Amino acid sequence: MDYWREKYFFPVLKENKSVALVGIGAAEAYVEKQLLEEWDPYLLSKQCKDYCVYDINDKLVSIARDHGIRAETLDVAQQTLGREFDRIFAVDVVEHVFDPISFLKNLRDSLAPEGLLVITTPNAIYWRQFISLREFEEHLFSFNCETLKHLAREINLEIVELKSFQTTGGVDSLPRKTLQYFHNIMARLGRGNTLLMAAQSSIQKFKES
Questions:
Q1: What is the pLDDT of residue 209?
Q2: Superfamily assignment of 3-201 in CATH?
Q3: At residue 150, does pLDDT exceed 80?
Q4: 63: Cβ–Cβ under 8 A, 6 or more apart, which residues?
């Protein structure tokens, strides 16, 4: 199980909180392979009452709606979500947007008081970034822990957690288990394949009484 899901996503599904998910993901693949129960927007729709899913792609939004998911087409680099949420997740999205600063500012401004923003992005110093450039050619930007810290300071985000982790796959065979063990060690050294930043707005907001 990926770290961000275990630490932040699955727990919030059991809480009475409003949740936004930015980025629908590989919708067509989940539908075609009949893996809806593993698709984050679908899980959100089944277990959370107050939620919305956002994506810039009309086709992906349409697929989500066809499966009963509350979804809206929105370019978050251009505008806020239009309301506030207790939790906002943007998983492997920020590296694809033309203006990461505006993107993160708009997410920050969509947080409720004491709300939490959770983003993940590929780690720029993960070793495969240097030997398999084609794998990352669709990314407009790359980030490491220091660049995320700088971004957070620039846009008034207070970091709650910033860490490198390794996304998990099938590890049944001995070679895969050995490779996963190596990856876990590298993640502890800040060189896992994915970065997670959980942050709150440092701009004071007040809850309505």
A1: 47
A2: Vaccinia Virus protein VP39 (3.40.50.150)
A3: yes
A4: 24, 27, 28, 31
